[in-house]
Amino acid sequence: MKIQDLEMPDQQGYFGEYGGQLIPPQLKSVMDEINATYDQICKSPAFQDELTDLYTHYVGRPSPIFHARRLSARQGGARIYLKREDLNHTGAHKINHCLGEVLLAKHMGKTKVLAETGAGQHGVALATAAALLGIECEIHMGEIDIAKEHPNVTKMKLLGAKVVPVSRGTRTLKDAVDSAFEEYMKDPVHFFYAIGSVVGPHPFPKMVRDFQTVVGREARAQFLEREKKLPDAVVACVGGGSNAIGIFTEFLPDERVKLFGVEPAGRGLDTPDHAATLTLGTKGAIHGFVCYTLQDADGNPLPVYSIASGLDYPGVGPQHCYLKDLGRVQYVAIDDEECLDAFMVLSRIEGIIPALESAHAVAYAMKLAKQMSPEQSILVNLSGRGDKDADFVATRLKLNATT
Fold first, then answer.
1. Is residue 250 annotated as a catalytic residue, yes or no?
2. Which architecture, in CATH terms, is 15-55+94-205?
3. pLDDT confidence bin for 160, thresholds 50/70/90
């Protein structure tokens, strides 16, 4: 890989042939203003100092890396380490970019931040940042996800956010994005759409990536300090792709480190009930940008499914698409049953309850470890904790007091 391949995106927001701004003309000037302001303040020591201070004293960064010794021994082969983003304030990696986006919105004089959410982690993180920084917050969420992730809905309301149920279509993440965007279009001059992943029109894939690279910077330094070498593989789940690009970016120049993005195979790749966009998708457009999508013959997004509400999106971040084409990242898929198994194994032998999203990455690391030697190591981005999923999993697995 040439170093220029890593200098992404270009001035038009493209990562190779993916990304860009496929937006109504009235939004072009708004997006360009956001991009120009971001490029200006991201170089500002005052902005960076404020964000770093919040990461340290509010979020609790740096998050640690943990050697999962019992899990490693159970699987055999490579040693498995976890980057503990689940220990962040609000319980996931989402707080990293939400603080950055809300700070940017405040700097630009916006009066309201709004967003979509699937599993609710982005919604909770944005509501938290909005409460901290004193700005109105509105979250759109599909009715199915509201029922499934009710603990996070309660948290958003406690934090003062307005939660808007979305009853259209599949009543999940894709439709929540559509609903939130319609609200945003009512006043894009004064509202700020805080996109929850490395998706959407330029500059959001770039901005969210940049805010999330704190994960990879920490992890690389921590691993070198602890092991005196880099991990042999880095694994992260991929829906839109923010946690994965956050940890991958720092390791991209190190071609000896294999990178694996784990998509949801749902009920099986041979069924329509999955969201394995990079595995089975084709080039298309969704929500203002070009990417791999799961689409019908007319180019319309297909209904998608994952047991993890944060992964059921029919598109994916444009940088992931480019990295797939370059061959720098290998994208694989884990099904619901493998995910649930990893969820329970990690809970019961390490005392760590992961988010269902993160359990996809753990599941693949469990398989990968068996193919590697004990001298090798795998670093998993444990992107979130499973408080929000505990009741759902208990019901799904029919757990009881004697199980």
1. no
2. 3-Layer(aba) Sandwich (3.40)
3. very high
